[in-house]
Amino acid sequence: MAAETLRVVCYLNQFFGQLGGEDKAGVGPQVVDGAIGAARAVQQALGDAGTVVATVICGDNYAAEQAERATAELVALVAAARPDLLVAGPAFLAGRYGVACGALCAAAQAELKIPTVTGMHAENPGVELYRRQVYVVQTGAEATRMLPEVQRLVALGLKLARGEAIGAPAAHGYFARGVTRNIVAGANAADRAVAMLLDKLAGRAFTTEVPRPAFPPVAAPRLVKTLAGATIALVTDGGLVPRGNPDGIEALNATRYGAYSIEGKSSLDAAQYDNPHRGYDTTWVKQDPHRLVPVDVARELEQSGAIGKLHETVYSTVGVATTLAQSARMGREIAEKLRAAGVDAVILTST
Amino acid sequence: MRLELRWSDVDEVTAAPATRLVGTRLEVDLAELRELLSADSRLARIRLELARPGERCRIGRVFDVIAPRAKAEGGEDFPGVLGKVARAGHGRTSALDGVAVVATDQQTDNVGTLAVIDMAGPNAALSAFGRTHNLVIAAWPSPSTERSDYLAAVRLAALKTAVHLARTAREADPDRVDVFALSPSPRVPPELAHLPRVAYVFQIHSHQRPTGLDEGILYGDPVRRMLPTIVHPNEVLDGAVLRGFMGRSVTTWAIQNHPMIRALYAQHARTLWFAGVVVTVAQATEPERVRSAFLTAGLVAHTLGADGAVLTKIGGGAPHVDMAQAAAQCEALGVKTTAVVEDMSTDGSAEGMLLFDFPGVDALVNVGSSQEPITLPAMDRVIGADDLASKLLGETRATYGGLCGAIEQVGATRVMAEVR
Question: Chain B partners of A183 at a C-beta cutoff of 8 Å?
Answer without folding.
Answer: 415-418
